[in-house]
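hey so i finally got around to running both of the ones u sent me last week. sorry it took forever, my laptop kept dying halfway thru and i had to restart like 3 times lol. anyway pasting them below in the order u listed, first the sequence line then the structure token line for each. didnt double check formatting much so if smth looks off just lmk and ill redo it

first one:
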Amino acid sequence: MPDLIFDDVSITYRTGDRGDRGEVAAVKNISLTLPAGGTLGVAGESGSGKSTLAMSVLRLLPANARLSGRVLLGDTDIADLRFGELRAVRWAEASIVFQGAMHSLNPVRT
């Protein structure tokens, strides 16, 4: 299993319609390396870009998202993978576990 590398990754979302387009930054200039077999927990406020960053690994961003920088799995840029190659990565190399609000840790009960 190769390292997962975020190399100066920024992600923005286009907003508005054709006559009044703007952009909202979700992730700005993230660079980090997750060693092969490692685990990463990402914490932050609602809307801070945690899910956006995770979805960029598997190219699950919506059509209005724009990614700059590189997301690498080893030496391979995720953006360069064909669908079949990406599908293989999704099954064997990388996965995401999203946590629903109803199942989150409740500090009152712990």
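and the second one:
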Amino acid sequence: MGIPLSIVRRAGDDGASRQSVRVMVQEALR
């Protein structure tokens, strides 16, 4: 995983950001 946990944790606070992180994760897995 090339995504820092800090970003994922921060996204947990905002529901809207959660979707953005989800997309980033999918792109990173590609």
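quick thing i noticed on the 2nd:
The mean pLDDT is 71.
anyway thats it, ttyl
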